[in-house]
Write a structure and sequence with these properties.
Blueprint: H1 2-16, E1 20-23, E2 26-29, H2 43-51, E3 56-60, E4 65-70, E5 74-78, E6 84-88, E7 93-94, E8 100-106, E9 110-117, E10 121-122, E11 129-130, E12 132-140, E13 147-155, E14 169-170, E15 173-174
Antiparallel strand pairs: 1-2, 3-4, 3-13, 4-5, 5-6, 7-8, 8-9, 9-12, 10-11, 12-13, 14-15
Length: 185
């Protein structure tokens, strides 16, 4: 009974603090953003990338880098010194014993291996919490060895829905992956 009362009062306090966040022409309410999701901290940055078709974004601080993945089109790894690898999209390989997915692609410029692990990651410079730890291995055609980079990442699919469900049917009509651009939501 006391737990229920405390929970109820916490929910009421939270709802009382909700204020709209304005991004471009759209208005989002804080209650539509999942707690601990980085979108609550920087809605414009992630919303813009989502609207550009990016499905996953990651970055690191030690030797700053950024990774953008559109699972239907490409992976793009970029560093401020001009080094970048742009590869076609590849199918991820899931580990059997952990919540890890690995993407490996090669082009004439080099090789890019991206490992995404569902493990909370805290950006050591900003303190921002993201839902995934990312490890990237790159090898330029002229390099003898791989370079490894570590950082944090976030899926950008409809962030309000999180990643804990799969649409099965609507009005008793079974959903078919072919009916959607990026598979069944």
């Amino acid at each position: 009974m006391i737990r229920t009362l405390v929970y109820f009062l916490s929910v009421i306090s939270f709802w009382g603090c909700v204020q709209p966040l304005k991004t471009g022409n759209n208005i989002f309410k804080k209650d539509s953003i999942i707690a601990n999701n980085s979108l609550a901290l920087q809605p414009d940055k992630f919303r813009t990338k989502f609207e550009q078709g990016i499905d996953f974004i990651a970055s690191g601080n030690e030797l700053f880098w950024i990774l953008e993945i559109d699972f239907d089109k490409s992976m793009h790894f970029k560093m401020p010194d001009g080094f970048e690898i742009h590869t076609p999209a590849v199918e991820g390989v899931k580990a059997m014993d952990a919540n890890v997915t690995r993407y490996n692609a090669s082009t004439e410029k080099g090789t890019l291996t991206v490992q995404i692990q569902k493990l909370e990651c805290i950006n050591d410079m900003s303190g921002e919490k993201l839902g995934y730890t990312v490890t990237i291995d790159t090898k330029n055609k002229t390099d003898k060895e791989y370079r490894t980079y570590k950082g944090c990442g976030q899926y950008l699919a409809d962030y309000r829905l999180h990643d804990i469900w799969l649409l099965d049917s609507i009005n008793n009509k079974k959903m078919v992956a072919a009916d959607f651009l990026k598979g069944i939501p």
